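dumping this here so i dont lose it
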């Protein structure tokens, strides 16, 4: 039998780990049921942040278009 080679400390370790897993799962279930599992995290914004944009010069637009063409050639 494979159980003959397992020491009492190893068996006890498995039992302790299983018990810790059960306790942690029960704790998480309790937090979820109360409806505040992430109470410490700040609330998210309802509106997205303001978008920023920068006007490109014609030379920059041409360089960007060339880069896009160069990268899309490989596909």
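and the seq i came up w/
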């Amino acid at each position: 039998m494979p159980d003959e080679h397992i020491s009492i400390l190893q068996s006890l370790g498995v039992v302790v780990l299983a018990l810790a897993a059960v306790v942690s799962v029960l704790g998480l279930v309790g937090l979820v049921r109360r409806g505040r599992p992430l109470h410490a995290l700040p609330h998210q914004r309802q509106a997205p942040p303001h978008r920023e944009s920068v006007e490109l010069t014609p030379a920059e637009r041409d360089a960007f278009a060339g880069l896009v063409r160069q990268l899309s050639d490989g596909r």
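Helices lie at 8-34, 58-72.
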